[in-house]
Queue: 2 jobs
Job 1
Amino acid sequence: MSKSNCPTTFDAISRFNHWIVAIAMIGMLGFGLYLENVDLARSVKGPLIGLHKSIGVAILIYGLWRVGYRLQQGFPAALGNAPTWQEIAAKTVHWLLLASIVIMPLSGLMMSVFGGRPVNVFGVLMIPAIGDFPAIGKTAGAVHAIAGKLLIAVIGIHVLGVLKHRIFDRDATLSRMVTGRVE
Ligand code: HEM
Ligand code: HEM
């Protein structure tokens, strides 16, 4: 049972939060993989990593409020008559996505500050290095890379689920996240 103030749909704040953070997360996955896999000159790569970090910390700050808002509002009940296992799968995916909004930027940040590197966020916020603790820094780096790859798969399942609702069930699952309408 949902404890949302609006139990059948997503309010405007939820819809804005969903799409702005979804676009940012997908963009940052692409950005991170680009940095990791494309052979760039050091002079180009350095500033790009700085930009990746700045955007990532901004996502962490905004994402904490976005996830907190969802925890406080709860989820509207699922639409349609999907079998129970599909509803459980969809809910599991939603929790994994919410977790990724915190885990991805936090692991990136920990990789830097426990690797002895401060993080300069757009030149307006300086997060100091905590120290050189390679075990923590490397573990955080592994989490960042592995969780990033898992997240791509989870987003894929999420989008396939939305398409299934749209094409086969023809219910309002997508439209209630776009316009808020359930009709
Ligand atoms: C929304 C948040 C973020 C997402 C989705 C994201 C995603 C990624 C991905 C997919 C990679 C490639 C990893 C690999 O394949 O090995 C990567 C690399 C990296 N990320 Fe992030 N990241 C985020 C935030 C951050 C933050 C906040 C920091 C640091 C403050 C950070 C620092 C780095 C660094 C240093 C690399 C390695 C780049 C290289 O040396 O090639 N990331 N990121
Ligand atoms: C093109 C990509 C995407 C589409 C079409 C999409 C669409 C949707 C739709 C239609 C819902 C509502 C499901 C329902 O009513 O039960 C939803 C929920 C949700 N989506 Fe996405 N989504 C996308 C990408 C993402 C990404 C990248 C994330 C996070 C990394 C994300 C996180 C969530 C979460 C956590 C929910 C549960 C409700 C909420 O807290 O917003 N989505 N999505």
Note: The pocket of protoporphyrin IX containing FE (ligand 2) is lined by residues 14, 18, 22, 25-26, 70, 78, 94, 97-98, 100-101, 155, 158-159, 162, 173-174, 176-177 (CB under 6 Å).
Job 2
Amino acid sequence: VSYKGRFAPSPTGPLHLGSLVTATASYLEARSRGGQWIVRMEDLDRPRCQAGAAAEILRALEAYGFAWDEPVLYQSARDEAYAEAIRRLGDLVYPCACSRRDVCRCAEGLPPGRTARSLKVRGGDFVLRRADGLYAYQLAVVVDDAFQGVTDVVRGADLLDSTPGQIYLFRALGLPVPRYVHIPLVRDAQGDKLSKQTLAPPLPLDDPAPVLRRAMQFLGQEAPALPVNELWNWAFSAWDLRRLPHGTEIDSGLC
Ligand SMILES: [Zn+2]
């Protein structure tokens, strides 16, 4: 496969306009290149996940005309793969006894009398397995992008800071590094990123076409008023990544 993209939501609540913009960019970039596109549920953080949210997200994607090429992968079913990756990292992994407040020097050995809470990676010095036993997002994303053969990641600029750590892990594991595009985040009228935390409204499912058109317009595409299927067909040929707004934020003005 020459191009394989993905959308990887966390099922902590329903999709909102910000997540639709990200999904649309990743879908259009894949389809306009004749590539494949998959959906992965990043449901690692079980305590934060909401029952039924994954099914609700998939229903919304279907209503908005997205079609994915493989069965949805659930990170909650992938613990064994993450454990195996930690074994493969070998000496790069070290136990850490710190809480968030501590200045961590555990790479040089655990301080006397302290017990390990989490596992970290040497060089990157970020957590691979958390104190609560859950695998960290950074590790799971890398293991799963490689496992699923993802060649290109299109995602929100809020994840820009985590990209160097992920590239570091791909290299440390001897896995191919995907190409990355980070798209600007949609901000609400208060200047906050649209998110579940800022109570962005869920996507309406009864009349998706105008909302999908707005998502494309946020991405700099002059989308016409069309029904969903025709809108996608227009966008598959018209999509141009170079028309993305510059910078890391888009003012929605309307949200
Ligand atoms: Zn530490």
Note: Residues 96-98, 104, 106 surround zinc ion (CB under 6 Å).
